[in-house]
TrEMBL record:
Keywords: DNA-binding, Transcription, Transcription regulation. The keyword Transcription applies. It comes from the Bacteria. One of its GO terms (molecular function) is DNA-binding transcription factor activity. InterPro entries: GntR_C, TF_FadR/GntR_C, Tscrpt_reg_HTH_GntR, WH-like_DNA-bd_sf, WH_DNA-bd_sf. This is GntR family transcriptional regulator. It holds the Pfam family FCD. PROSITE patterns: HTH_GNTR. SUPFAM superfamilies: GntR ligand-binding domain-like (SSF48008), Winged helix' DNA-binding domain (SSF46785). Gene3D superfamilies: GntR ligand-binding domain-like, Winged helix-like DNA-binding domain superfamily/Winged helix DNA-binding domain. Residues 1-26 are annotated as: Disordered. Residues 29-96 form the HTH gntR-type domain.
Amino acid sequence: MSPTSLGPDGVQADPDDSRARPRGLARPKTLTHAVIDHIAEAVIRGTYPPGSPLPEVTLAAELNTARGTVREALRALRDRGLVEIHPHRGAFVQSIGEKRVREVFNLRALLECYALRTAMTAGYIDDAPLGTIRAAFARLDDAYGRGDLFAVVDADIELHYVIASTCREDLLLDHLKSIQMETRRVIILTKVLDSDTSAEPDTHRPIIEAIEAGDVELAVSRLDDHICQSREQLLARLRERDPS
C-alpha cells in the first residue's frame, strides 16, 4: 500500500498523523523534513519492508515533490540507519540484523543506565521530574489498556527518554535521540506487527517503583535488566523469522 501523499504545506496529510508522530516532537519546518518524516514512518511501520527499494522517481511522484528533495531525505535517513544507498543501484530499506539490534540495545543500556545513575546520585529527580515520569508511565498504561499497539511503542520510547532526560546532559540525550528511530522500527517489526507488546506497563513498573524509593542501585539494575531482556526477546523473534 502506498503511503499517504503530502499536503500542500509539505506535511503528511494523514488522519492518524498524531498517533504516528512520537509525542512532543515539533512538526517539520521544511518540505525536506516532511519527506524525511514521511519515508521514515513508512519504513518504521513496515510499509516499506527491510531490503525493499526506494526509487527516487516513484517517491517523488507519490509525494508530489522534486527528486532532489527525495534524494536529500534518503541521504538523511541513511545517516540515521534506516536506509542504505548503493552506487548505480539506488536506495534500499536497511535490513535488520542481529548485530545491529545488539549494538543499538547495548548502547541504550549504557547511556540510559548512566543517565539514571547520574540523575539519582545528583538528586535531580525531585517531585517535578518524578511527576513527569509518572505521567509518561500513565500514558504507556493508557495506550496498553486501549490496545493501541503503535501508541504503546511511542509511549514506551517516550518513557525511557523522560527518565534519561533527568540527567540534564544534552550530548547524551542527543545520542539517545539518534537511535530512537531504529529502536522504534525494530520493536514494531518484531512485536507490534505480530500484535504482541508483552504487557509493557508491567515490565516498566518495577523501574518506576525503584526510582520513587530513591534506590539508585536497584533502579539502575532494573533498567539494565529490562533493556537487556527486551534485546534478547527481539533477537529471538528475528531468529524465528529468519532461522538461517
